[in-house]
Fold:
Amino acid sequence: MRKLLPLAMLLSLLMLACGEDEGNFAPAIEQRDSLPILKSRGVSTLISDSGIIRYKIIAEEWYIYDRRNPSFWAFEKGLFLEQFDEKYHVKAFVNADTAYYYDRKELWELRGRVLVKNLKGETFKTSLLYWDQKKHELYSDRFMEIKGETQELSGYDFRSDERMTRYSIHSSKGAFPLGEDKPATPKPDAKTMAEYADTTQHTGAPAANNNNMVTTPRNSNTGKVTPSTPKQPNRNVKTDNRTPNAAPNKPRTVEQIKKQ
Structure:
């Protein structure tokens, strides 16, 4: 009996401990899609496509919700993304306050202060930008501001290719400075203008006879132009006083000339 007493006391203590632990367990999770399958902090990773590194992602938090409909990745504390070409050169970079990536659709949704920069050094600023990787294009219906070395644009309904080098924007306004080496108004060459100048006044040609000009007086009542017959020039006409029957002088023969 003395040996069984400590054993009974030990079993009772274990039962009490198990009873207390049962109250510390969390309830069972019924909706699995409400929790992410992956939580990661301080992320800096490379993403490849068909064995080629395409993107570099830097984020403070990265959550993957695989049971959501649709499934997506969440970068709710900011995202910095670089895009590479086949030779691992940076084609563009994207910075946003919040980003979501829908893996099945291959669609990025960038929100907040969105900043994109391309290889030309042009910057694109907006509050919402979609990047469709299947169609290889970016688009936004929000206000977009574009700044480059030689131009500034702003407007709505933005659409572009993945490299952000060929794009269109509607309801736009901006500034396009002209180059210093290209004057706004072309200036004619002085020598060329001198060659084609009117030199009739310097060649000694007689002035035009005003008597030969045709005048077209205007009728004061009707306002119509009344054509008039042109004036005939003054000519000194020589008259022949010979009668029509008079024969013209005949040329002399050689014999008549010798006799003289």
